[in-house]
Write a structure and sequence with these properties.
Layout: H1 17-30, H2 34-50, E1 59-62, H3 66-70, E2 78-79, H4 80-83, E3 89-93, E4 100-104, E5 107-111, E6 117-119, E7 125-126, E8 129-132, E9 138-142, H5 148-158, E10 165-180, H6 193-196, E11 201-215, E12 226-233, E13 239-257, E14 259-262, H7 268-271
Parallel strand pairs: 1-14
Antiparallel strand pairs: 1-8, 2-7, 3-4, 3-8, 4-5, 5-6, 9-13, 10-11, 10-13, 11-12, 12-13
Helix pairs in contact: 1-2
C-alpha cells in the first residue's frame, strides 16, 4: 500500500526466523510483499480483539440471491422490519424495483427515480437487500481532491484482499456526485441495465455519505460484484445509486467481514426459476 493517498507509518519488528521464512514463502506464493501480508493479518487480528466479549463476528446478510432479481422477480416477502434483525447498514431495493434503498444508522430510506429520499415503514417489502451491523475496522480521513478513477483506486488499495467482503461508508464533502435510481417496474420484466445505468441525477458541492459493499467476483451470483455504493445527502433528502463522484474532504470507514448469511425465498417464482449457473 505504498501510495501517496494512504498515510503510513514505518515500523520495524523482529520475527523468529521460522516465522519470517514462512511469511516470505507465503508472500511469494501469493504474489504479494511481506508487508502486504503483515498488514492484512494485523488488521484481522485487531478487528477480532476490538469485538466485545460475546459479540458475534460481523456478517453480511442477503435477503435473496441477486440473480433472482436480475431475472425479473421483483416481488418477494421479506419485510423491511425483518432486515433490522440482521443489520443497521446496507442497501438494496423495494418490491417492483420502486427506487433504490439505503440503510444508515438503522433507518431505511427509499431513493426515488426523481432523486428524492424518504424513510420507509417496516411493513414495506424487498426482493433484494444486503445489510450488516456496521462496525468499521479501519477509518481514515483524506483531504485531497480525487476524481472518480483515483477514488476507486484508493478504495481498492485500502482493501487488504480482493477475496473478502467489506462494508464501506464514506462521509464528507463532494465536489460532484452523479447518481441514478430505478423507477417502478412490472414483475417478470428483467432490468435493462443499459437503460437504467446512466446518470440522471447530479449534485455539486454537497455534503453526504456513500454507503455500500465490496463483494468478491467469485460470488457474483449472490451479490453485485466489486464496489456497490449508494449516495445520500447529509440532510437525508436526496440520493441515488452512485455512478461517479469527485471527492474533496472525506472520511472512509471500512469493515472487514468474514461471514455471509443468505436467505433463499420460498416463493413459486424462485422455486421454479431457471437461474444462471
Amino acid at each position: 500500500m505504498n501510495d501517496r493517498h494512504v498515510p503510513t507509518v514505518e515500523m520495524k519488528i523482529a520475527l523468529p526466523a521460522g516465522l519470517a521464512g514462512e511469511l516470505e514463502r507465503t508472500a511469494a506464493a501469493a504474489g504479494l510483499t511481506a508487508a502486504e501480508i503483515t498488514r492484512t493479518a494485523l488488521a484481522y487480528y485487531l478487528e477480532a480483539r476490538r469485538r466485545p466479549d460475546g459479540e458475534a463476528e460481523s456478517a453480511v446478510y442477503l435477503s435473496a440471491p441477486v440473480t433472482a432479481m436480475l431475472k425479473g422477480f421483483y416481488e418477494e416477502k421479506t419485510l423491511l422490519g425483518d432486515l433490522r434483525r440482521h443489520g443497521d447498514f446496507g442497501l438494496g431495493t423495494f418490491n417492483n424495483l420502486d427506487g433504490e434503498m439505503v440503510m444508515l444508522d438503522g433507518i431505511i430510506y427509499q431513493l426515488r427515480a426523481d432523486g428524492q429520499a424518504c424513510p420507509v415503514a417496516d411493513d414495506a417489502r424487498t426482493p433484494f437487500a444486503c445489510v450488516t451491523f456496521y462496525r468499521p475496522t479501519v477509518s481514515e480521513a483524506f483531504e485531497e481532491e480525487l476524481d472518480y478513477a483515483a477514488f476507486q483506486a484508493l478504495l481498492g488499495r485500502l482493501l487488504p484482499s480482493d477475496n473478502m467482503l467489506y462494508a464501506i461508508r464514506v462521509d464528507g464533502f463532494f465536489r460532484e456526485v452523479q447518481a441514478w435510481s430505478v423507477s417502478r417496474q412490472e414483475n417478470y420484466r428483467p432490468l435493462n441495465e443499459e437503460e437504467h445505468n446512466r446518470p440522471a441525477l447530479s449534485f455539486e458541492n454537497i455534503s453526504g455519505v456513500l454507503a455500500g459493499f465490496y463483494t468478491p467476483k467469485f460470488i457474483r451470483s449472490l451479490n453485485f460484484p466489486g464496489f456497490h455504493l449508494h449516495f445520500l445527502t447529509a440532510d437525508r433528502r436526496y440520493g441515488g445509486h452512485l455512478h461517479a463522484c469527485r471527492t474533496e474532504r472525506v472520511k472512509i470507514g471500512i469493515q472487514f467481514i468474514q461471514q455471509l448469511k443468505l436467505d433463499l425465498p420460498m416463493t413459486i417464482d424462485y422455486l421454479t426459476a431457471r437461474l444462471p449457473r
